[in-house]
Design a protein that fits this description.
This protein is α+β, with helices and mostly antiparallel strands and about 240 residues long. The protein has one domain: Gcn5-related N-acetyltransferase (GNAT) (Aminopeptidase). Helices cover about 30% and strands about 20% of the residues. The chain contains eight helices and seven strands; from the N terminus they run H-E-E-H-H-E-E-E-H-E-H-E-H-H-H. The protein has a seven-stranded mixed sheet with strand order 1-2-3-4-5-6-7, sandwiched between helices. Strand 4 and strand 5 form a beta hairpin. Helix 2 runs antiparallel to helix 3. The longest helix has 16 residues.
Length: about 240
């Protein structure tokens, strides 16, 4: 919108360095601790390696999500589209304080879990996906990111919502998560209801939820054998949804 200046000016046109604009568009990051590589013995006996996503992973993951978003079953189309945007948001630095965990078994990409921090007190769960229907991969991935937000980063609250029935069954129901009043409180994913875990419920019972359910806990000292087996990530030969 053009408005005539109310006083004489010495310069009527200005050139702006886009790096100055980027400082306004890109949110200053919080000083979040890094995720420590972990391994998890699944219920079917396989060992899953859980690590953070790297910049080198992004092109491969984006190509894979293009396939996922073509599947209508179990809401994979909308979840795939949103995850694609979230991964791209990390790459383009248009997502505030994100964290993304990948689950690998012998180098094969089988699990995805991500979230972000709204502020120091509240962390938001975004999406959890499993590409292996054995061993409770999705359960382990959701637990890992919840552990990171509440145990490692010490957020006071962990907010989730669920786009699929399977996701709600896995975490909303199995963890007996209560909801915040709706519509006063809405999750950023479509304004859906917010399910939450806080430090009280986490420390009282939910920290032990997955270990009690599957019988194993995360190991933050993966063996050299596990690390070597997962040095190079590859995508599944076919979608197992």
């Amino acid at each position: 919108m053009k408005i005539t200046p109310p006083v004489p000016v010495s310069v009527d046109k200005m050139t702006i360095d886009v790096s100055e604009i980027e400082g306004l568009l890109q949110a200053p990051p919080m000083n979040l601790p890094a995720w420590q590589d972990a391994s998890f013995l699944l219920g079917d006996g396989r060992t899953m390696f859980i690590r953070s996503m790297t910049d080198q992973d992004v092109p491969m993951l984006l190509d894979f999500m293009k396939l996922v978003m073509q599947e209508e079953k179990d809401f994979y189309d909308i979840v795939g589209a949103r995850v694609y945007a979230e991964i791209l948001g990390v790459k383009r630095k248009r997502l505030k304080d994100p964290f993304t965990l990948l689950g690998l078994i012998d180098g094969e990409f089988v699990g995805f879990a991500n979230g972000r921090f709204m502020n120091k007190e509240i962390a938001l769960s975004l999406h959890t996906m499993a590409f292996s229907r054995r061993g409770k991969v999705g359960w382990a991935m959701y637990y890992a990111k919840t552990y990171y937000a509440l145990e490692v980063c010490k957020a006071n609250q962990w907010w989730s919502t669920f786009e699929s029935y399977n996701g709600w069954r896995m975490a909303g129901l199995a963890m007996a998560q209560p909801t915040l009043p709706w519509p006063e409180y809405q999750h950023e994913l479509g304004g859906a209801k917010i399910y939450y875990v806080n430090q009280d419920s986490w420390n009282a019972s939910l920290k032990g939820w997955l270990p009690n359910y599957i019988g194993n806990d995360m190991d933050f000292n993966p063996t050299d054998e596990v690390r070597k087996a997962n040095e190079v990530m590859r995508m599944p030969d076919k979608l197992e949804l």
